[in-house]
Amino acid sequence: xxxxxxxxxxxxxxxxxxxxxxxxxxxxxxxxxxxxxxxxxxxxxxxxxxxxxxxxxxxxxxxxxxxxxxxxxxxxxxxxxxxxxxxxxxxxxxxxxxxxxxxxxxxxxxxxxxxxxxxxxxxxxxxxxxxxxxxxxxxxxxxxxxxxxxxxxxxxxxxxxxxxxxxxxxxxxxxxxxxxxxxxxxxxxxxxxxxxxxxxxxxxxxxxxxxxxxxxxxxxxxxxxxxxxxxxxxxxxxxxxxxxxxxxxxxxxxxxxxxxxxxxxxx
Length: 267
Description:
There is one protein chain. By secondary structure, the protein is mostly beta strands. It folds into two domains: 3-87, Immunoglobulin-like (Sandwich); 96-266, Glucose Permease (Domain IIA). The chain has helices at residues 3-21, 104-107, 114-128; strands at residues 24-26, 34-38, 44-47, 50-52, 59-63, 72-78, 81-87, 96-99, 141-142, 148-151, 156-159, 162-166, 170-173, 179-181, 186-195, 199-207, 210-220, 227-228, 233-237, 247-254, 257-259, 265-266. The strands form five sheets. Strands 10, 13, 14, 15, 16, 17, 18, 19, 20 and 21 form a ten-stranded antiparallel β-sheet that branches. The longest helix is centred in the first third of the chain and has 19 residues, at 3-21.
């Protein structure tokens, strides 16, 4: 057989088999980012050492921590054969954000509310730990409210002059009472009117460990267990909890890993 024909045959063969064997990724390998993966539906996938769910059509999802220091490895196991892929994670620079004028008991809570805060934090953690088979995470998310972005993901917060945890969402300033729409379709897993830090709070499950959180709501108009479609109204903008003015604090998580909402939003 002519060498040119052999080369063409081999090239076509590679094109044919590569989509089957490769893991495809959508998203930037950047600290804080949401990544959608695609693989053989029968494959077992590990992100680092964590096994993730693979949907019947081969989709899986994961997130990169704000302070991820190392490259990510992906292990694919199918029919007893193992292959490993490594992706370089790019680092980001984060802003310093100063917020003054907060009530001192919101910056450093009194001991009398420690039990309440711990209970609420545990409930939030349980909602974020849900690993359902829902597949709404595959949809591109939408901005939940129109307004000015007044706080960005990852910024180091200095509250009343005291350094605190980074901000893990985006703040969207809007008028009190502005309608908030669900960024994606999902199931409501938390609907609270008055949490200590976040006030009116809604958490929604979108499947495979992806959840969204909406905080500081004036009114919460959904209940736990409600199935919500993307764009449905879930509440109104407020200034409840630890807040200095009307805004929505919008967050997205992969289990306990907090992600940059801007990495999933469409415009």
